[in-house]
Fold:
Amino acid sequence: MPIKKQITTRPPLVRKPRADAQRNRELILQAAKEVFARDGAAASLDEIARLAGIGPGTLYRHFPTRDTLIEAVYRSEVEKLAAAAPRFAATLSPIEALRAWMNLFIDHVAGKLLIVPAMDTVAGGSSRLIIGSRGQIYAAFVSLGQRAVASGDLRPDVDPDDLIRALVGIFHTTHEPGWEPAAHRLVDILIAGARSTQP
Structure:
């Protein structure tokens, strides 16, 4: 009986983006964030390319449609917010890492509000993008909250979910002037109220 040779197939290599391609992508996202925040739904992709210092063809190679660019801008901002959690945890005490991230979350929401008019033009609207990002944001917050409880900085009966509910509550006032300073003050109030009484 002839012996059948086993044929092994290797998975295709996943090439990392070239450095210049990655740099162009980041320049496009930064420029798009600025232009969408300034011009909303009327933002010009040619203006985004000009501000990024690239040609329109390069922009379209990275983002074939306006929708893909808008979604990428928002997802990039969410990824930066989520990535800040382990970075803060590595460099700050548990309580200060939590405080820094909560304040960054407020800044993220303020920035998101500026590009919501553009986000509303994509299929499914801004709500689809926002709902899709909640898991990442929640996981980052809870990891820092649990770390602060485990360290003894926060009382053992503190539930990180309660902290995020209180913080998200103030986002319902974003249409009112002065909501950002009020939100940052709320962070300090929440942390002070949740602090452990142990020396």
